[in-house]
Input
Amino acid sequence: MTDIREVSVEELRHLVSERALTGETMLLNMGPQHPSTHGVLRLLIELDGEIVVNIIPDIGFLHTGIEKTIETKTYEKSEVMTDRQDYLNPLGNNLVYCLAVEKLAELDVPERAQAIRVILAELTRLNSHLLWLGTSGLDLAAMSVFLYTMREREFIQDIFELVSGQRMMTTYFRPGGLWRDVPEGFEKAVRNFLAIMPRRIKEYDDILRFNEIFVDRTKGIGVISAEDCLAYGLSGPVIRACGIPHDLRKKQPYSGYEQYDFDVAVEEGGDVYARYRVRLKEMTQSLRIIEQALNRLPKGPVRSNNRKYVPPPRAEIGVSMEALIHHFKLWTEGFKPPVGHVYATTESPRGELGCYMESDGSSKPYRVHMVTPSFVNLQALPLMGRGLYIADLVAIIGSIDIVLGDADR
Amino acid sequence: MNEYLKQVITAMESRFNTSLEQFREESSLIVKPAFIVPLLTALRDEFQFDMLMDVTAVDYFPQETPRFHAIYQLYSMQHNLRIQVRALLDGNAPSIDTVESIYPSANWKEREVYDLFGILFVGHSDLRRIQMPEDWVGHPLRKDYPLGYEEVQFTFNFEDIMRNKPQAKD
Output
């Protein structure tokens, strides 16, 4: 065993003020096991009494080397890893990975598969926002809303289980389409959910909007300006709460989002309360998208017919020699996209989720890099938190909605 | 290709001697590392590429020299366009100027690239490891970094492997 190296203040000297070295201000460690940091986030906070002077976030506790592992697996096997990054947005991660592979290989995706992708991606957004609403309400002592959001989240988890057999780590989208078509009860389950949800969203809003403590602790807290948002590359609800209507579903549509009619949720102010309003509006818009997609859900295949990339259906293998060869090749070797590199992006519940993928012509990706919104948004935390009380910091961490699996990968 | 993007690319070609690479309607500018700061400054100030979405790298060991490509993904909010900038870095003590002063978002991204690839960003304000522990040796995303690997035990080599296996109590 090698000795554990200890980090001294000297190493962080360039990040703390002079007063920290004389003992005038206090350096306080928050996390990594603190419940309100939403995962394993460690913050080193320089405090002047109750006032935050500076914050030094320390991440990497959940680093599992996903990018390195992906390089040693075939394209199809690597996809399983993407679920584990942002565990509140598993289908969104699958989607961006599949989009990157499809762009690289110029693979077509049937209409039906695209519509189902949209429905499930929006359900994932609702799922993530519901958990966010519950936990960040809990952070601000609004206990009851957590119980309600968890109840509704269960409906969504059940739908995921229905289609993929898994509640969280679904790997349901595959390059070129879906794993299989949705089962019979799918449409009914989603319609049931759509029927109850608008009323419930209003209920959450009523609980929190009229909660004086919640409003006091969120209005005017954690303000970030639109210029800083651009400079720090922030995206998602954080940037939309600053009055910039930036939504990749509208601006650079993917998976057929251009066919749906929805509004981009925008708020002014850039504080915690504005972010709360944006997410709540987004939930309503997601329901609109799901309803439209469900109404026009086309019939047809859910996987591409390109046999060089997508395995043939089971029935074909028994009667076609060629199908058998394709099946064998795809499951032993994997497919080989052409040499090149692509960058695919989607709008995840937290912001711009990108996937940089490079192929060297073999059956394993040469390099995959996930550009994750939690990592980017967390970087701006010191900017939002300086000069506020330490208790406000808890509200701010909740409002930027970080998932540490997403930040550390 | 978009007219505006064409304009940007020709301007960059004449000023910084960049070469263009295109694949699947994405444009990448390949630039010498010495020009990275003036190039990104020009892209931000004159061509409204106001967001740096990502900094990453790729290691081409051993088949290619220069060994590393540092990759910058830029986005223009006003024009809704993306452009990629790639700087080619030598494998022997790779280093490039930091772009932190142009785009503050590069701070953590460059720390991550330093941590996982060992590329030095000259002038960076806080170049510490970010994902790996502070006392980690090596840079995991390099292609010559050994993969952690446990040999499969069979009856014939069971004893052999057992002897060298690290045990929890040491």
